[in-house]
Structures are given as structure tokens and as C-alpha cells.
Amino acid sequence: MQFTSVLPALKRAGAAAVGALGILASGAVYADSIAPTSFSASLGVGESVTITKTVTVTAAPPTDALIDVMFVFDTTGSMGSAIAGAKTMAGGLLASLGSFGSVASGVAFYNDPGAGTVKAPVDTTAATTVAAITGLGASGGGDYAELGYDGISAAAAGGGWRAGSNRFIIALGDAGFKAGAATLASTLAAVGGISADVIGIDFCSSSGTCALAPTFASSITGLGGSVFASSTTPDAIAAAITAGITASFATYSKVTVDDLGGGLPEIAVSTVCTGADIGSCSGADAVGSYDRSVDRVFTFDYTFTRVAAGDKDFVTFALVDDKIVARELDSFKTPEPATLVLMGMGLLGLGAARRRSV
Questions:
Q1: How many CB atoms lie within 10 A of CB 143?
Q2: Which of 124, 149, 151, 232 is the most buried (most CB within 10 A)?
Q3: Which residues neighbour 83 within 8 Å (Cβ) at sequence distance 6 or greater?
Q4: Per-position DSSP letters for 186-254, written without gaps between them
Q5: Segment 244-263, tens digit of pLDDT
Q6: How far is the C-alpha of 69 from the C-alpha of 123, rounded, in Å?
């Protein structure tokens, strides 16, 4: 998304986010899903079973996604009011983001002088993030631009990201970036290496820096990110962040199912795409240019193979662009010894019957 400083764009995005969350709160079943919601079987070593897994990616955002958010603050002097607003809205924002699924969050910052610093890596305890934001202050700076690349790179490298998570680096600032320990190129590599979405919350209109070059907006878009303008009020900051995360789910290009290794060492899985909505199947993946304008359905042949004895319960995930949006539970038992004995006796009986008939 390209940056605009006009508030109508933010209002539209914020309204979309609030509307989406309202749908989720209403109890209507519009969440991304994987069906069947559970599967169980008894498999002997070497045996396999194949079932159809159906993934529905809905027009509304997911409610069972894995969401990791690193907030990255510019803590130079001009950001005082924005940081104060963020402190006020932090707890309520994290609670509302729970509507998307399981949320973990953390905090990093940058200043000048001073390199980017991770204050708290992602953690599912919201109070840890709130405390980290509360502990921030605004000071220093006095020149232009700021060490934003350092802050974003530090967050990417030290975020403590969970496997399979939808990863967001939320940069809150009012000034463009300059090279320090990190550069544009190295920051692009750091962000790309963890497949994170960069979202910029731009306070240039509050600090009078919108006309300075480089702008905060151009620095964020240079990293492939999206920018949302905000005032320093708590409600505006929360709306901008929510709008940014909601918008990141709007388009996607790949859908598949996988257990991410959870079934091993007892159960191995394999996936073959069999139906790809308007796109096409390529091995395990449904691929295409998709959006959330409508619900979209994808199907897969999903094969479980017993490779070692032992009961096993594990989760299979619906993955959109390799990130978890829904999950279901699979359960496997090893056939009881008595069952194997009965099967053996049955085979012996068949053999005896064949001898008598000869």
C-alpha cells in the first residue's frame, strides 16, 4: 500500500478493521478453517491412510492465526506525544488483536545516537509488552534522519518469532531512516529472512516532518512495507495498527496444509493439492493471485503414514503463504496386540480352510 497523508484513507482502513472484528465478535462462522476439524485412526507400522483436507480462506480475516508482532519505536525527542499515546492504548490493542488468534508481542526501539535495541522479544503475556512500552521515553535526536534501519533489523533478528507465525514489524516514527550499523540492503535481507510484514505508523503530521527527506513513509515503503498515518491519540494509534494488520491478510498467493513436523517420529505426512479455487495446483500447494473479496475453497489429499509405533496426537495446520491461519487435531493409535493376534488367527483359519478344500 502506498502512503497517503489524508485521513480518509486511514478512516476507511480503520473502518474495515473494526467491521471485520465486529463480524468475528458476532459469533458468525466466517473464520478461515480446515476440515475435517479432527481425524483419528489406528495404523500399524508401514500402513497409510489418505483423506481429503478442505481449507476455506474467508473474506474476513482469520480468527485462529498465529500472530507475532514486534513494535519498533523511534524514541527521539519529537516522539514524546506518540509514545505517550502508545502507552495508553497498548493493553487494549493487544486484547483486541486476540480476535485474530494467538498473539505474541514484543518491543524494540532506536535512538540517535544508539543502535537498535530489543527491549522484549515476542511473548504471549501481554503484560510483558505493556510494561516494555511503559518503560520507554523520548529524548535525544536533534538531527535528521534517524536510525530506523537499526531498529527494524534488531527486531527482525531478535524477535524470538514462533514457528509458522504471521510476523509483523510495526514501526512507529516520524522521521526517515539513515544508514548506521544497518543499511537499507541489510534491513531488507533481515526482514525477508523472517518473512515479516513491515507496517509503518507515521506521526510526521504531528511533529512537522512530513516535508523532510527522506520521509518516514518513503523509508517504510522502501522496505516493501505499508504506511498508515496517525495522530498521537491512543484511539488513532490503535486504529492504524489494527488497519495495517487487517490489510496484510487481504491478498495471498499460496495455500497448503502441513503438520510442520508435529507428527514425527511416529507419523509422517504428505500433501498433494487437488483443488485450487481460481488458481492451480503445484505439488503440495494451491497457487494463484488470491484476495479476500470472497470465500475461497482449496482441497488436498493428505496422507498419514505410520513410521514408528506409539500413540500420537498432533495438529495439522492450514497455511496461507506458509503462515498458520487455522488448525485441527489428528490422533493415531497403534493397533492393540490382541487385535493383531486375532488378525493372525483369522489368517491361519483362512489357510486351514484352503488346505481342507484342496
A1: 11
A2: 151
A3: 73, 75, 133, 136, 137, 138, 172
A4: HHHHHHHHHTEEEEEEE-HHHHT-TTSSS-HHHHHHHTT-EEEE--SSHHHHHHHHHHHHHHHTSEEEE
A5: 999 999 999 999 999 999 99
A6: 9
Which CATH number, 3.30.420.40, 2.60.40.1510, 2.60.120.260, 2.102.10.10, labels domain 31-62+251-336?
A: 2.60.40.1510
What lies within 8 Å, CB to CB, of 108 at 6+ separation is 70, 71, 72, 73, 116, 117, 118, 119, 151, 154, 155, 158, 159
Domain spans of the chain, in order of start: 7-21+65-248, 31-62+251-336
Q: In whole angstroms, what is the distance from residue 47 CA to residue 325 CA?
A: 30
Res 14: pLDDT = 38
Q: Which three cell numbers stand for residue 297?
A: 475453497
Looking at the chain, the whole-number percentage of residues with pLDDT higher than 70 is 86
Strand-by-strand arrangement of the 285-291 sheet: 38-42, 323-333, 312-320, 251-258, 285-291, 280-282
CATH no., domain 7-21+65-248: 3.40.50.410
pLDDT (0 to 100) of residue 115: 76
Q: How far apart are CA 153 and CA 327, in angstroms?
A: 31
The set of cell numbers assigned to 331 is: 490422533
Identify which of 21, 108, 33, 26 has the alpha carbon closest to the alpha carbon of residue 61: 21
- Is residue 16 pLDDT above 80, yes or no? no
The 10s digit of each residue's pLDDT in 52-107 is 999 999 999 999 999 999 999 999 999 999 999 999 999 999 999 999 999 999 99
At 90, list the grid cell. 497498548
